[in-house]
Design goal:
This protein is of the alpha/beta class. Helix content is 33%, strand content 11%. The chain is built from six helices and six strands. It has a six-stranded parallel beta sheet with strand order 1-2-3-4-5-6, with helices on one face. Helix 5 packs across helix 6.
Length: 192
Amino acid sequence: PTQQAAYLKSYGPAPKKGIGVHLMPTMGTKGDDLRPWLDRVRAMGMDMVTTLNDDPDSMRVFAEYGLFVVCRPFARCTDDWGDRGKAAEYMRNAGLVPFIQAYNEPSDDREWNGGQPNYEAWKWRWIDAANKIINYGGFPGVQVLSPEELNILIDAIEETGQQHIYDKWWMSYHGYADNHPPIWPWDGKTRI
């Protein structure tokens, strides 16, 4: 843990507020075209973004804004991961911590192009993606909505002897889930 903490600190500070947004103006908005959106992010006092952008120009701009970035390359649970792990290299080159979320919420049928969730396919795709992300020097993130889904993944990691993943993985936090004003009449338990 001490070695991991030192490694993460070498990339710069963690977000001070941990408040962010899922930044997705359009799938084609990249690089310098992100600036008007990032100006808004900063004007709202946010310091982190979750983004589908996985290109070097976008990572450079995110770093210039001093944002903490969670990269979630666009991939449905039906898609092969391909070379999307290369985003970790782009993030490192920009001075960002290479947190890459592999796939998203396998219980959501939208992640299966409207089809039924297939946990058998998802767990093997996630492990493949995690290894590719690690090979590029990144940290693979997992985003699940239930302990059962996480247990499916843990069982597959154990079954295949790929415990090295545990040294790098993290639970993907969506920093925008609780982003409402402090005076919010509809939810008595969540306050910023």
